[in-house]
Design goal:
about 350 residues; alpha/beta; TIM Barrel; two-stranded antiparallel ribbon; 9 strands; binds coproporphyrinogen III
Length: about 350
């Protein structure tokens, strides 16, 4: 036992209670986050200023005592560190210089600009030094497919049409991009582990719109390669994969990628997915972020349903996707109180 409930779930027999953290637990639903966010000129400046990133990472831990902290950063630091311009437009979201063709892909840097990313690793070291002993620290990256949807579309796109079309039209050029991202993700995760991350999560937020063959080729396979690359150096660091929106094939995904844990989105039928997975595989999820806004009986029932579906199994209590800015603090407190019994 490591005296960290979050890490124990990967190593020990199923615990009496599931550890809990929330995706996007640092963010705009917290007044103290909005206060420090106002100090940075841009969202990326905020991510790259260790004092601010450290403080944002610790805020939800101080307030709620989650079992894990996730480093405050963003998945788009990888395209940024490959030389593609990235900026965040207030109230709209990320904007990137569009990768139009094979040439644009070939022109990306072949390696991450580690000077650009140094503040992320500095923030991890700072957080690790300040975290309570029982709290684990999670590092993360975006999966290559999801990163590619932003890099090719130039922004968030509702159905990822630009990247899907590009991959159909020119699969060779697209695989050049995916390969470069696989290498970048491996390096970024390894450096996060070396800076103090005790587990890592790979966010494939846009895995769900792909037909099966495309999913296997661009999403599942690249995640498998990242995990193999990280394991070659750090065999014992747990890896959580989040193939958001996939509608089946959970057991095949875990078998192919060798992920230690699979994060399940809100629409996943939890008991059924759990039953399809080997007992040693950890599940994570999948409370609806909207029911956390609603609160009341609906919230209590939704929490009980998850506790019941995962009782006696290795499970990390989490949301099915990131917490939304309108979420009342009292509902998060209620959630923690119920999960901790
Ligand atoms: O607390 C945490 O979870 C750690 C920090 C974190 C952020 N982004 C901070 C953030 C993490 C893990 C992410 C992951 C991320 N970023 C994903 C994958 C997870 C998911 O939600 O699907 C994706 C797709 C992104 C890209 C991204 N970053 C978008 C589309 C946006 C704009 C939308 C929005 O919510 O504003 C961001 C900005 C962002 N990243 C914010 C935060 C707290 C909000 C920006 C702000 O505070 O100004």
């Amino acid at each position: 036992m490591s005296a960290k409930p979050f890490l124990d779930v990967f190593h020990a027999a199923p615990a009496e209670r599931s550890p809990i953290w929330m995706m996007r637990q640092a963010g705009r639903y917290l007044a103290e986050y909005r206060a420090i966010r106002a100090k940075a000129a841009s969202f990326l400046d905020f991510c790259y200023t260790p004092e601010l990133a450290i403080e944002a990472t610790l805020q939800p831990i101080r307030r709620f005592g989650f079992d894990a902290a996730i480093i405050f950063s963003d998945i788009l630091v990888i395209p940024d560190a490959l030389g593609q311009g990235v900026r965040f437009v207030e109230g709209e979201g990320p904007r990137l210089d569009v990768l139009e063709d094979r040439m644009a892909i070939e022109n990306l840097a072949s390696r991450l600009d580690l000077e650009r990313l140094a503040p992320v690793y500095a923030a991890l070291r700072g957080v690790r030094a300040m975290l309570p002993a029982e709290t684990a620290l999670i590092g993360f990256c975006g999966a290559p497919w999801t990163l590619a949807t932003y890099m090719i579309g130039g922004r968030g796109t509702p159905d990822q049409a630009p990247a899907r079309q590009f991959a159909y039209r020119d699969p060779e050029a697209f695989s050049l991009l995916i390969n470069r991202l696989v290498e970048a993700c491996i390096e970024h995760l390894i450096l996060q582990i070396e800076a103090g991350a005790e587990a890592v999560q790979i966010f494939d937020s846009w895995a769900g719109n792909l037909p099966e063959a495309e999913f296997l080729r661009w999403s599942q396979e690249s995640i498998a390669r990242i995990i193999a690359g990280v394991r070659a150096k750090y065999p014992d660091v747990p890896v959580i994969a989040f193939p958001r929106g996939i509608s089946g094939g959970f057991a095949r995904f875990v078998q192919a990628t060798k992920a230690d844990a699979i994060s399940l989105d809100t629409a996943t039928f939890l008991a059924e997915a759990r039953a399809s997975l080997p007992a040693k595989v950890v599940t994570q999820g999948n409370l609806d972020p909207l029911v956390l806004i609603a609160g009341g009986d609906a919230l209590d029932r939704a929490i009980d349903d998850i506790l019941e579906a995962t009782q006696g199994t290795r499970h990390i209590f989490n949301l099915g996707h990131g917490i939304l800015p309108q979420t009342p603090i009292a509902h998060v407190e209620r959630l923690i109180e119920k999960v901790r019994g």
